[in-house]
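Render this sequence as a predicted structure.
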Amino acid sequence: MIFLTWFSRMREPSWYIFTRCTLIACAMLCSALVVLVWAGNYSVSSSLLHSYAGHTAAMALAVFSAGGIGSALMEDILAKR
């Protein structure tokens, strides 16, 4: 519950960073899903597409984590002003 109240008190730059990184992470996960559907069953010819989808999903997690940390740091900097 404390986490939800923190979201309601976020300042505009922190909220912007968090929402944009969340949207980018969702777009990356959707593109990984599209690549997996396009690749079909795992075979030798589609192994590279499965690898790309795995890397894209991992990078989506990295983008989401960076957005969360970045917005928390921005919130801390703005709170000290």
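Summary. Residues 14-80 form one domain. Residues 74 and 80 are 10 Å apart (CA to CA).
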